[in-house]
Amino acid sequence: MRIGKGVTRRGRVLLLGMILALAAARLPADEVVGTLDAVGSDTLAGLMLRWGERLAERHPGVRLQLQASGSASAPAALTAGTTLLGPMSRPMSAAEREAFVARHGYPPVELEIARDALAVIVHRHNPLETLSRRELDAIFSESRRCGAERPIERWSQLGVTLPGDRIVLHGRNVASGTHDLFRLRALCGGSYRVRLNEHPGSAAVVAAVAAEPSAIGFAGLNHLTAGVKALRRRDAGGEAAAPTPAAVRDGSYSLSRSLYLYVHLPPGGTLPAPERAFLELVFSPAGQAVVEAQGFVTLAPARLAEQRAWLAALPTAE
Amino acid sequence: MRPFLTRRRGEGPWPWLAAGSVALSLSMLAGLLLLLAVGGLGHFWPAEVSEVTPREGAPFAGIPVREERVVGSERRERLYFTGNLDLDGERWRWIPLDAIAALEAPPELVVLERRRWGDFLGHLVALEDGGRRHAGAAAWPALEERLATLETLRDERDHLRDAVVAPLVRRLEQGGDPAAAAELARANARIRELQTAMQGATLVLESVDGRRLEQPLAEVLRAWRPNAMSPPQKLAAWGRGVWRFLSEGPRAANSAGGVWPAIFGTVMMVLLMSVVVTPFGVLAGIYLNEVARQGPFTRLVRIGVRNLAGVPSIVYGVFGLGVFVHGIGGSLDAWFFADSLPSPTFGTGGLLWASLTLALLTLPVVIVATEEGLARVPEHQREGALALGATRMEMLTRVVLPMTVPAMLTGLILAVARAAGEVAPLMLVGVAKLAPQVPVDGEFPFLHLERKFMHLGYHIYDTAFHGDDVQAAMPLVYATALLLVLVILVLNLTAIFLRHHLRARHGVASRA
Amino acid sequence: MTDPRQLRRRRLRDRLATLLITAGGVGVVVSVLAIGVFLAWEVVPLFLGEGALAPAELWQPQPVEGYAEPQHRWRPEPLVAGDAVHYGMAPLAWGTLKAALWALLFAVPLALGAAIHSALYMPRRLRARLKPTLELMEALPGVVIGFVAGLVLAPWVERHLAGALALVVTLPLGAVAAGGLRALLPAFLRARLSPGWAGLWLAPWLLLVGSLTLWLAPALEAGLPGGDLRGWLEATWGLDVASRNALIVGLAMGFAVIPGIYALAEDALSGVPASLGEGALALGATRWQTLWRVVLPAAGPGIFSAVMIGAGRAVGETMIVLMASGNTALMSLSPLEGLRSLSATIAIELPEAAVGATHYRLLFLAALLLFAFTFLVNTLAEVVRTRLRRRYRRLEGSA
Questions:
Q1: Do B55 and B182 fall within a single domain?
Q2: Residue C334 and residue C228 in one domain
Q3: Count of the separate structural domains present in chain C
Q4: Within a domain: C69
């Protein structure tokens, strides 16, 4: 008998029981089986793994193999054809897209899977509530490209009284997506002050700001704790945008970004069953609940419906 | 010249400063160990849950964590872990001490550990199970019983998935095997059946301020009522917590669960490293001490080797990245794994390269220890063996090396202790934040040298700096740090003991 | 009788094995020594051929947007194509040396004090226990020390800055005061508290002094003009206080290098031929005078090499600096400001740098600098130590 091969004794007993119970079972048409490969961002690693777990609950025969070595690894693997799914925490650059098109003759499909935002944080006892973009730039950058006239180095310049008074800056290190996004959106592409404490992780930024009353920093929304307070952004009209899920979802909070999943799919082609099941899960309510539980922000309903419709319209493989 | 029996006239403050520095060094060491022990072990103790009634606003349930002074005033405030992320959108709460109107510890408060949304703290109202409803006092026993059933179901499902389904899927992928398909369908049907059995029951929960929550029971991992537990029960729960920490994988982006894969990865890497470093280190030691002609050149080489022990570990990491990963790994990929390029197989960090890098890093330790051992062997032992007609090799293998084994072992243990604690080079050559696949499994060739692996030291760094919620992760970081320190202390104590033992034995031998 | 054929076979086996050992040994030695050569090989393309970097770009201030004066900047990656990149490595090298300096300032007095105390005053049995204990201290992994320094100690110092600075003064005073108080004690108590065991019984006393200092520190701080230490430091001394500063790094890394310095210094001190000290003592010198005038000069080179080896360790330590320093590439010597070291920069940036690019090679250059520095320092220490050993042997021979 082949069944017990390579299986422990306990497994064999179990299998025997199952055969007695389900003697006539066959592989049903909707049974999805296979290994699913994904190569890409480490920001998205937790999210992808949780989706993989949920998928394995729905389809016990499916396994997700994730290689999370950074967003830059996704286009390379997609172009090479070693994977069909490439999670990325930034959109693909023109050069990466061109390389893919040059190899395959068509672009990869870009799917938005979640939204994420950076919050500007201060110590929980800091009375400051809002900051304008110009102030933010004057605090964090030495280039002041957003148009501030003078650098802001003291809390008293913002009308806040704190012990120590000098503003202490905390942020992320070079070579992190957070560092680049903040530089692009908050500093108008300028450069950071040298005094910025460059921590190697967002959790470290939050811990540092939570411990220091005169500190200000920036970190991913999913890292915030009760020790820090997220500031709202004040625009020219004096309206303040808080990093609430709604503002992040529609982009009215400008320090937000989309998280992507790139799919290698020829025009008119079909997706293998495991990949398809994975995408179905991602855009299902259960999949979006995972997004929320991981601390990211779910997609806008319209965007979600649009991508669901796209998925439903794909011809099924047979 | 020591010790002195008579007390001399005043020597001024200096001797006391010298003594103070010993005291200070020892206090710092003890303080660090104490900090790790308290922070790490305290986490598993089922802490009492308080029901806090603030002067203003609704009451809440929470576990006190620590107190701090409010900035710019003399008031103090306390941090509570309140859980209930799904209800509040927040798991922590700071409250000034003077804003607390009342503190209670009602015995019926439950803590639920859930797979999503983290812990729940509050009241258990009812357990609804397929039409039956256990409410009031009956709810808790029913919950305990159902959780035990769930655990066995979960174990069976996990076992089926890992031991039955996974191999079948691999067989299916390698070639259409009709028998495998049928088996798989049966296994899957059983898993679905188990999953259906797990579903169904729902808990009706209520937070302290009266908000209701329907919680599917399948998402609940454990439940306890800390305020109603007796100290022995708490001790038992503490023991189970420690065991789970050691035996389970991490959950929730490393901020919960255990460190088993990291322990496994560390041990695998260190084992591989020992396999590489021992023969080479011993060979080099024998060469330098027994074979090479002693002269300025060997002295120079010896100084070089000794100094390499002082070269920063990160430099070895850079070397490993340049030579092993990009150099040798890149070539291996080009020759043998060309079909999967540009996705690297060996051309990226992995277990093999990490082990080799650390082997290089610890080589001087083994060489130096071997040399010291060889130098301790009395010259007349060698002369005796040679005089009896042994060749040099026979003299070495039969007489000298057996006497040096403890020294080599000491060197190896010290090397292992050093390697287990090194993190910086690993960041460059193959450690991973989360490796869902351990480097050893039932799949050919069983030991996957190219895979990334988890490591206790890196786990500390990653959880403390990259985790989602640093406040929640701190106790786990403490516990992991304590574990790592304990492992290294035990290794070092073994080495110290061996060396001591060795000295004692050779003391006798050389006097004889 | 041995069979000549068997003898020949044994000889052959012997020669083969010797060959194997020689090959293995030479191979290991060569490959280990090849590290430096390899690093240099990777760095050379930076300075040769097209697009070569001028050394001035690395070590001298360059024009930077937003400043009239040229500045040192480390900005190796452009955000978008065409962005200015700056390869100023001077702040990183500076930070490395600064971290090592503050670590040594903390570690050397403690380690030497401990070495002197244990070589001169401690009973032999206690010394035999102390040495392995301090060895255990050295074995503590950097990542654990870094975690404690960065996430526990730094926030604590941030909240208790005045107390922490006061400890630097009160702890040594406390130790001296203990000596003075002991002289006032009745004889039977004094006998219990022998100087030989002072390393142990001083610990609770110092703990008491420390707690007292921390308890009183807020009151002391309130007595300053302005009632705020930070404001006072800034107004009076122009010092800027960062929470992740060189003091924290120095403390944490000092903790890590104390045992290494202690072990070598203790070896050097107890290796001084007893005849030297006995002569001085016989002439009526106190133990401390003997130490200061006779033993220390004799052991000086050994102590120097101990400090050198400590410096080598401090310069290369990665995880402690990475986790405790804040990684700010500043060029200041202030203990209350942050720093960024070469090793931490390598650890953070190398995994993300494009292979073969300028950034990648610059990080290799950083590794080469670390390698060269530690190798030189260690060689120096080793040479000095060898000389010293020879001198002791001579002294002992002549005595």
A1: no
A2: yes
A3: 2
A4: no
Partners of C29 on chain B (C-beta within 8 Å) are: 284, 287-288, 301, 304-305
Count of domains observed in chain B: 3
Correct CATH for A32-108+264-313 of 3.40.50.261, 1.10.260.40, 3.40.366.10, 3.40.190.10:
3.40.190.10
CA distance A163 to chain C (A): 7
Contact between chains at C158 and A196 (C-beta distance less than 8 A): no
Looking at the complex, report in whole angstroms how far the Cα of residue B72 sits from the nearest Cα belonging to chain C.
11
Domain that holds residue C18: 4-45
pLDDT of residue C2: 59
- In angstroms, the CA C150 to CA A200 distance is 12
CA–CA min distance C183, chain B (Å): 10
Instruction: Show residues of chain C in contact with B36, CB under 8 Å.
Output: 144, 148
Cross-sheet strand order for the sheet of A130-132:
A130-132, A232-234, A240-241
In a shared domain, residues B178 and B280? no
Interchain CB distance below 8 Å, A77 and B184: no
Same structural domain, C134 and C17: no
**Token code pair at residue A228:** 């820090």
Q: Is A147 helix (H, G, I), strand (E, B) or coil?
A: coil
- Could you report the per-residue pLDDT of C56-95, keeping only the tens digit for each? 888 888 887 777 788 888 888 777 767 778 888 899 999 9
CATH of A117-255 among 3.40.50.2300, 3.40.190.290, 3.40.190.10, 3.50.50.60: 3.40.190.10
| C27/C142 same-domain check | no
* Cβ atoms C87, C59 nearer than 8 A: no
Minimal Cα–Cα distance from A220 to chain B, Å? 9
Are the CB atoms for A33 and A62 separated by under 8 Å? yes
Residue A23 has pLDDT above 50, yes or no: no
Q: What is the β-pairing status of strands A168-172 and A215-220?
A: parallel
Whether the model clears a pTM of 0.90, i.e. scores above it, the answer is: no
Residue A1 has pLDDT above 60, yes or no: no
Which residues on neighbouring strands pair with residue B142, listed in sequence order?
A: none
One domain, residues C39 and C113: no
Contact C71, A142 (CB under 8 A): no
Chains that touch C (3 or more CB pairs under 8 A): A, B
Domain span at B81: 40-126+204-237
For residue A24, what pLDDT is reported? 33
pLDDT recorded at residue A19: 41
Q: What mean pLDDT do residues C238-255 have? A: 85
- Cross-chain residue pair A33–B166, CB shorter than 8 Å: no
Could you tell me which of B309, B204, B190, B262 has the C-alpha nearest to residue B458? B262
Tens-digit pLDDT profile for residues B401-414: 888 888 888 888 88
Q: Scanning every residue of chain C, which has its alpha carbon at the shortest distance from the alpha carbon of B302?
A: C29
B273 and B135 within one domain: no
Instruction: Give the closest residue to A164 by CA, choosing from A199, A216, A205, A228.
Output: A216
Q: Is there a contact between B308 and C143 if contact means CB atoms under 8 Å apart?
A: no
Give the nearest partner residue to C65 out of A184, A191, A196, using CB atoms. A191
How many Å apart are CA B449 and CA A196, to the nearest integer? 40
DSSP B137: G
Pair (B319, B462) in one structural domain: yes
